[in-house]
Amino acid sequence: MKDLKVYKKHDGQKTIVKVKNVTFNDGSFNLIAGPCSIEDRKSLEKTAQLIVKNGGKLLRGGTFKLRTSPYNFQGLGKEGVELLYEIGKKYNLVTVSEIPSICELELFIEKIDIIQVGARNMQNYALLKKLGKVKKPILLKRGFASTVDEWLLAAEYLLSMGNKEVILCERGIRTIANGSKATLDLNVIPHLKKISHLPVIVDPSHGTGLYEYVEPMSLAAIAAGADGLIIEVHYDPKAAFSDGVQTLSLERFEKLL
Ligand code: PEP
Ligand code: MN
């Protein structure tokens, strides 16, 4: 394990991930915000406008949703990717969306700025090998039952194939704690900062599962040294097609900022 590329070789070693006007791991703090799922142009645009108004630079949006139930909303697919691309371009926002499989590789390479690998795909090694050859940053979420070593080995797949632009994202894991949907492992931030040179961000939306907990855990993640946050925001969370219960309204989002 000692010689892995994900590990720091010396104190102060940092991998800087740069995409357009955004830099991760140079001491700046980056906030990625947007809906769990992209639903239509109007709602995505409202969110984009709010982000711009508050000085934000990154817009997230689920397009091909990996849902636990096949009966739940599966996302707009390619149409969602096109919408994110258009709105990102219009408002000069860096876009983030989750790639569901190898099949969508070309589409994501062409249209998305930061390609997200979700918790369910963290150990999809065929996908990781392909993404290791891509010249785009990869936001690699932690699997919800994955150890830090398994997570870092997933990152190693990307690094070993040549893609050094990896952002690690803690999004909550399954533990015996049952006060919320997941246990947001904030210990992992100082731990990763100690052993790895990669940027680390936190997802307090999936990490708590409840909108009321997003603000305190966002602050906690920042205090623990995270390089950024990825947060679900929607103009009307109660009407959101997915994850409304953990999604911030525009008002709550502004309050958090
Ligand atoms: C998401 O960010 O939209 C998502 C599905 O997250 P995760 O893979 O962490 O569940
Ligand atoms: Mn979600």
Secondary-structure blueprint:
Elements: E1 17-19, E2 22-24, E3 30-34, H1 41-53, E4 58-60, H2 78-90, E5 94-98, H3 105-111, E6 114-117, H4 125-131, E7 138-141, H5 148-160, E8 166-170, H6 188-195, E9 200-202, H7 204-208, H8 211-223, E10 228-232, H9 250-256
The structure holds phosphoenolpyruvate (PEP) and manganese (II) ion.
Phosphoenolpyruvate (PEP) binds at residues 36, 62, 98, 118-120, 141, 171, 203, 206.
Report on this structure:
By secondary structure, this protein is an alpha/beta fold. 33% of the residues lie in helices and 16% in strands. It has nine helices and ten strands. It has helices at residues 41-53, 78-90, 105-111, 125-131, 148-160, 188-195, 204-208, 211-223, 250-256, and strands at residues 17-19, 22-24, 30-34, 58-60, 94-98, 114-117, 138-141, 166-170, 200-202, 228-232. The strands form two sheets. An eight-stranded parallel barrel has the order 3-4-5-6-7-8-9-10, surrounded by five helices. It has a two-stranded antiparallel sheet with strand order 1-2. The chain is globular. The chain starts with 16 loop residues before the first strand and ends with a helix. The structure holds phosphoenolpyruvate and manganese (II) ion. Manganese (II) ion binds at residues 36, 206, 232, 242-243.
